[in-house]
Amino acid sequence: MGRRCGYGLFILLLIYLMDAVEAMHFQLYKRAKHVYAEARRVPQFRQTCLRLEAGSNVTETLQNLGRLMDELQRSSAELSDSSCPELDQLTQLARQVGAFGSHLLVGVFLYP
After folding, report:
1. What does the pLDDT look like over 11-51, one tens digit per residue?
2. How many domains is the chain partitioned into structurally?
3. What's the 3-state SS for the chain?
């Protein structure tokens, strides 16, 4: 129950952010939507991997993992603006030559 409450509060925060001037300038709603969707994809990815260990179909599992990666790339491009046309084209080319899905990770390095 605590999780649902947390998600509800998060949704209320998103609604508030949609109306705030600062949120429009920094596109906080889009960024938060990307983060929230990615937070949902992580357990889906894990569950898909666990099903493979339990003996599910390998091709079906790879297709599901690829779909999740494609969703992440699309979200990165459309909601968080952490992609560019060249990266989008590379991921599209990877799928055209047989990849089940494609996402290019943005590296972040923190220095002490």
Report:
1. 667 666 665 555 566 777 888 888 889 899 999 999 999 98
2. 1
3. CHHHHHHHHHHHHHHHHHHCHHHHHHCHHHHHHHHHHHHHHHHHHHHHHHHHHCCCCHHHHHHHHHHHHHHHHHHHHHCCCCCCHHHHHHHHHHHHCCCCCCCCCCCCCCCC
